[in-house]
Amino acid sequence: MGQSNTIRILDGNTFVVCEDTGDIEATPSEPTGLFSIDTRFLSTWVLTVNGERLNSLSFDDLQYFESRFFLVPGMATHYVDAKLSIIRERAVGGSFREQLTILNHDEKPVDLEVRMDAASDFADLFQVKDEILNKKGEIYTEVEPDRLRLGYRRGNFRRETVISSSMSARYDSKGFAYTVHLEPNEQWEASIDVETNAVGPTGRDLRLGLRKHGTERLALQHDLEQWIADAPKVNSEHGRVASTYRRSLIDLAALRFPPLSLGGATLPAAGLPWFMTMFGRDSILTCLQTLPFTPQLSKTTLRILASLQGSRFDDFRDEDPGRILHEMRYGETAAFEEQPHSPYYGSVDATPLFIVLLDEYERWSGDVELVKELEQESRAALRWIDNYADLVGNGYIWYERRNTDTGLENQCWKDSWDSISYSDGTLPPFPRATCEVQGYAYDAKVRAARLAREFWGDPEFADQLEREAAQLKERFNRDWWVDDGEYFALALDPDGRQCDILSSNIGHLLWSGIVEPERAEKLAAHLVGPRLFSGWGVRTLAEGEARYNPIGYHNGTIWPFDNSFIAWGLRRYGFAEEAATIANGILDAATYFDGRLPEAFGGYPRELTKFPVEYPTACSPQAWSTGAPLLLLRTMLGLEPHEGHLAVAPRLPVGMGRIEVLDIPGRWGRVDAFARGRLDLNALTD
Fold first, then answer.
1. What is the pLDDT of residue 263?
2. Are 295 and 641 in contact (CB under 8 A)?
3. Tell me: the pLDDT tens digits for 58-93?
4. Which label site among 93, 285, 420, 676 has the fewest CB atoms less than 10 Å from its CB?
5. From the CA atom positions of the chain, what is the Rg in Å?
6. How far is CA 579 from CA 112, 144, 503, 575, 631, in A?
7. DSSP one-letter string for 232-253
């Protein structure tokens, strides 16, 4: 299975993508470089010795925030008798630091010219993604005796990269250089600091610069160790489960992102390289996946989303009162309103999911104070569902962008342009309503009724919400059911015509609870049937549909996050065997990705491929893919809060062996859960 030869390290929304030599040579369309707050601060970072590029012997992926490269001059034929070796050790933590070590293995002294070419195009991440680098400001370079300052200014908007070194260097407009003399068996070292600075268009300083260099790496290492120590311990007879769990924990640590307004508290950024920022839907769903393991992420996510909740009508940002944001960006194009993500509200599902997370978080944590603190924001979200989201006037949540230039056309999780279609492959008009969002709205009302009755002191509102939820459930089961296929339509068009294709979204309906019990068995059969289930996981779109494509972004690929919620939904309706089948497929797939599940992978049948086929542009790590193994663990063990205690009802796949999850945190303190998979009788017979 092919692997990208780029090396990635990250710390929240600061990340480096480079070649396997450590060099960076970005083009306007490549997501390589040093990025932070949606800006590329280094687009060139190329090391030479005596004018010669270096070749990679190997690299060590030390931690998510650091890597080490072992290099030699010359081509591969010279490796065996190389007289020099060069080690580049780099760490990212707010900014960037590189340690250079050169060792002379020769019997005679050497004189070296060591040079680093350095430059920045200060590209906005959106410009890189859209392959359009159109800078309207001024790029400048300032050479100082002890540092090199690369900068970009456009009015009050300013970004700077400041490069300095522990060893005396000669700085020029294209980089810096050292003259080095090494005796036999002698080594030379230099530390290079790259500080990123940012000022917003209002003149506000967005970054305090690099952390204290001497303590930065140790602080990150200690923080990671503490993060792992605080999480439950997972032991498994089948090694893939424990190793995948640990990989997920580390990737979650890497993706933690401290919003500028929260004083260091973190929430999960969505994914590297394109989505290293706050997303409403992605952050909420990741928190739901990880609640039994890292509950602290949920509190931060709920608070920041509440603080940025829509308060007015703004067509450019698709904002309404009560609406939860879709995406927040800090780069140049957002600052100058060339795109609307400052923040942008074009998500139709984040608002009901906000209420779902608040209730689920309280059920686990017993954090009544947060439920009371966010009462008004929750009521505003419910008003949005009723007053602003029903664009057609028939009691469903619809979407149609008001920003027709730069807003999102599809505002559900399957947000690519062709993800919603009729069975003949044609696309419906707008507004559109997708099925899973109606399920989220139903779940939000049921959960909000509990919050209103138990914590907000408003039993009348609770009764009203329960009536509305029951009516929605009845309407939905009437209007969305595809009789001849015995499943729910993916969407409705504004005339009520069904987009009558079979999709993975039906699993989200089970998770929400909107499905009438007598119909659940049909959905379960579809979800593990050959049209949807590949053997590795559930496809986004069923084989045989007009737009089915096993590597189509939302039209046939397998998304691990999607599968985790499908499995949770199957458990909700009592289909433990089917849930275990899906969990087994996804966890098997994870082993082929070294425990790090990508955003999506191909929907080819398992009997056709010995390994899951990579999707070429999938984000990795990605938050809700990272969260998927954790939710699958919860689902297999049947972990559910129940009347202040943790209920455990395990159902593991055949041959899984024993799993232990120790020190599960919650309102009950910390408890342990154990499960053992059933024996594979066929294997025993063989």
1. 64
2. no
3. 888 778 999 999 999 976 554 556 789 999 999 998
4. 676
5. 26
6. 62, 62, 17, 6, 11
7. PEEEESSHHHHHHHHHHHHHHH
User: How far is the C-alpha of 413 from the C-alpha of 60, rounded, in Å?
Assistant: 36
Instruction: Output the six-digit token pair for 59.
Output: 């690299």
Round to whole Å and give the CA distance between 542 and 504: 8
Catalogue the E-assigned strands of 390-437: 433-434
Q: What is the pLDDT of residues 234-243, one digit of tens each?
A: 999 877 899 9
- Residues 366-377: pLDDT tens digits? 999 999 999 999
Which tens digits make up the pLDDT trace of 474-504?
999 999 999 999 999 999 999 999 999 999 9
**Contacts with 574 (C-beta within 8 Å, 6 or more apart), sequence order:** 520
CA contacts within 13 A on the Cβ side of 395: 13
- Supply the mean pLDDT for the chain: 92
The more confident residue out of 2 and 526 is 526
> What is the pTM for the complete model shown?
0.92
- Token pair, residue 566, equals 């499908």
Contacts of 379 (CB under 8 A, 6+ apart): none
| Distance in angstroms (rounded) separating the CA atoms of residues 355 and 378 | 6
| CB contact at 8 A, 327 and 344 | yes
The amino acid sitting at 18 is C
Tell me the HSE value of 428 on the side-chain side, using a 13 A CA sphere: 27
Query: What are the φ and ψ backbone dihedral angles of 471, each rounded to 5 degrees?
Result: -65, -40
Q: Is the pLDDT of residue 30 over 90?
A: no
**Per-position DSSP letters for 352-382, written without gaps between them:** HHHHHHHHHHHHHH--HHHHHHTHHHHHHHH
Please report which helix (H) or strand (E) contains residue 451, including its range: helix 435-454
- DSSP secondary structure letters along 561-605: HHHHHHHHHHHHTT-HHHHHHHHHHHHHHHHHTTT---S-B----
